[in-house]
Amino acid sequence: MNVARIIDSVLEAPVIPSFTKIGYNARRRLEGWTELDDYDLHGKVVLLTGATSGLGKAAAHQLARCGATLVLVGRNADRNQQVCDEMINATNNGAISQVAADMGDYRQVDHLAEEVLDRHDRLDVLVHNAGALSPKRQLAPDGTEATVASQVVGPFLLTTRLLDRLAQSAPSRVITMSSGGMYTAGLTVSKLQMDPSSYGGSEQYARAKRAQVALNEMWAARYGHLGISFHSMHPGWADTPGVDASLPTFAKVVGPLLRSADQGADTLVWLAADEEPLRTNGKFWLDRRERSTHKIPTTKKTDTPARRVELWDWVAETAGAAPPAV
Question: pLDDT per residue over 56-74, tens digit each?
């Protein structure tokens, strides 16, 4: 092992140095990362959900600077257009548009897919970034718990609807922004949606993020042969409006060590732009390096082949759209 890899392993073992800006700064310096501005994405079409604030906005801004043709997705059309206009003015990239969609409303997700297919004859990168931690239990229009609907079912439906266009644009990429919080949660289906009596926002979020990572690996196994690379990642602990709103005590205590939004979004942009992620499939990343999807034995025991099939089938049924059999 070289020095950088040894230090990375030391950083990865305890959570605090790995997930904070300490880990980011050390890895960036020791491993000599390619500057994101050096990537040329002209001619590449990128669809990014959750693009109007936090990590998504930071990633979108960097992708625009790299020349990508961007489709930004947020729930409010006026807010979306404001962000588009800001980015066009800041980057001189006029190839930025928006579609309003709530990822927990499957009719809106279908509309989003139709708009993308109508406007673009290729799709090089699909980024599932939309997501929030809600302290109160809410329901999506179909009755599914809102966190699961918007972060598990909605992205599954969107990937399904755009799968052919992604295959036609190969080599293409699907990137899912997960969370280090998923390390605390096992893989469940019957308990994926927490009931009102036991609901906790952080736990519900972690369960959804665990499901995202399992589904990412299943997408890669089932459809990677189409020339689509499926990867998930977590950003570490970043200072974003979402963290401030949903975890104010955490944000206050860890505040000085939190990563910036740009630092948290770095690996997302790298996964969208670099050639290395095309050489593998179904991986989980932090700071431009593959990571284990389990840190404790109890969660690993729950992640069985049978539960994965059960999860896939339930999500497909709930979405009302199963990907083609291969």
Answer: 999 999 999 999 999 999 9
